[in-house]
Amino acid sequence: MKVIIRKNSAEGSLWAAHYIAARIKEKAARTNDPFVIGLCTGSTPIETYAELIRMVKAGELSFKNVISFNMDEYVGLPVEHPESYHSFMHKYLFDQIDEKPENIHILNGNAPDVEAECAAYEKAILDAGGFDLFLGGVGEDGHIAFNEPFSSLSSRTRVVTLTQDTREVNARFFDNDPSQVPAQALTVGVATVLSSKEVVILAFGSKKARALKDAIEGPMSHYCTLSGLQNHPAGTIVCDENSISEVKVSSYRYFKAVEAAENL
Fold first, then answer.
1. Residue 202 contacts residue 208 (beta carbons within 8 Å)
2. Could you confirm whether 165 is annotated as catalytic?
3. Which domains, and CATH codes, for the chain?
4. Residue 141 known to be catalytic
5. One of 143, 198, 240, 246 is an active-site residue; which one?
6. Alpha-carbon gap, residue 199 to 17, rounded angstroms
7. pLDDT tens digits, residue range 208-254?
8. How confident is the model at residue 164 (pLDDT cuts 50, 70, 90)?
9. What's the whole-model pTM score?
């Protein structure tokens, strides 16, 4: 596991955007196969998406040969609802880049058979060749996607019931009313994320500090689903000074030293 530490979320977001852009370009230089990426929602990736958009508009990057799969969607929330993840992704990324509409995949929380939808989503990921990179965020309790604490680390795309804590955190998008937040969601599983060739997790702000401490220094456990990244050969956490504040000083110094050595 690598941990990239930046002063604040703006610097961390820029690092992530340029890392993703470099990976897309590297694959394009050696093959005609599409770059397959997993994408997340929420406030955390917005700055990263903004920089990717800037690069596309500046002609520095193209998504024409990129296939994307989003990590989750609420069950029963209309696609046109402003807080659906369909709406979010089009507002903050898809409507401003050159990715082909047929290459955009988002789970359908209004499917007549949500179990079949989840199975079809897993198959579509495999048919695309699997993820080259998965960009994710982390919840305050250490969950990735909607894989709440005690989700199996071997879980795949499925229907989940959201905890009250998660609904309360997300209530800020629903007039601060947790009862308006859907009780269920469709989500890729922990194993779906970890099956990616690379995983990049964004974590900014002091509210993520305990989650990062558990994920980095604690045991690998379904209590903190992000801790599954410990077993990934190419997992990276991009964080800021506030979110890394609870790890040991020796851990902090180790990650800073590793990055410095790699940049020599």
1. no
2. no
3. 2-262 (3.40.50.1360)
4. yes
5. 143
6. 13
7. 999 999 999 999 999 999 999 999 999 999 999 999 999 999 999 99
8. confident
9. 0.95
